[in-house]
Amino acid sequence: MNKKTMIILGVGLLIILITLIVQNQQLKSDKEGMEEAIKSMEEKLEDKKQGANTTEVYLRASSTAEEFIKTYFQFTNQPNKDEVLPFVTSNVEDQLSFQDEVETDDNLSDVVTKVNNLEIYYGQNTDDRQEIFARFDSEIEVDGTQTHSPSFVKFDMIQNNNSWKIDDMEFMQY
User: Fold this and answer.
1) CA 46 to CA 40: how far, in whole Å?
2) Contacts by 94-102 with C-beta closer than 8 Å and gap 24+?
3) What total number of domains does the chain contain?
4) pTM for the whole thing?
5) How many other CB atoms are there within 10 angstroms of residue 107's CB atom?
6) For the segment 44-64, what is each residue's pLDDT rounded down to a tens digit?
7) Confidence of residue 137 (pLDDT cuts 50, 70, 90)
8) CATH of the domain at 10
9) What is the overall mean pLDDT for the chain?
10) Distance in angstroms (rounded) separating the CA atoms of residues 138 and 148
11) Best exposed site among 3, 12, 43, 152 by fewest CB in 10 Å?
C-alpha cells in the first residue's frame, strides 16, 4: 500500500473514532435526562398512590357513618343497641338512647322512622381521623301520621385497628 492510501485510511479511521466519541457523549447525556424523567415520574406516581390511600380512607369512614345513620336513625320504636354499638366509641355511646333505657307505654302504637335522601360530605382529615357531615330527611310515622324533618349530623371519626368508629357526634333536626 502506498503512503497516500495509508493517510486516507488513517484520516477515515480518525473521523469514525471522533464520530463514535461524540455519539457516546450524546447517549450518556440522553441517558442522564431519561433517568431524571423516570425519577420525576416515580415521584408523581408515589404522590398519586398516597392520594389514592386518602380516598380509600374517606370511603371507609363514610361507609361506617352511613351504616350508623341507617342503623340508629331508622328503626321501629327504638334503635337496637347491639346493632349500633359496633359503629361508635364509648364517648358517643353515652350520648345515645336505646330500648332498654327508655320506658315504653304498651298503649302507644309503634313509632317508625326512616332515613331518606342521605348525603355524605367530607371535612378535614388526618392519618387516623376524619370529619364527616351528613344530611338526610328523617321520616317519622306514628298512628299513620307522617312527619318529615331535615336532619344534620357531624361526626368525628377515628381509625382504630384498620376500622372506623364515631368518636364524637353533633346532631341537629328541624
Assistant:
1) 10
2) 95/169, 96/72, 102/78
3) 1
4) 0.64
5) 5
6) 777 766 665 655 557 788 999
7) very high
8) 3.10.450.540
9) 86
10) 6
11) 3
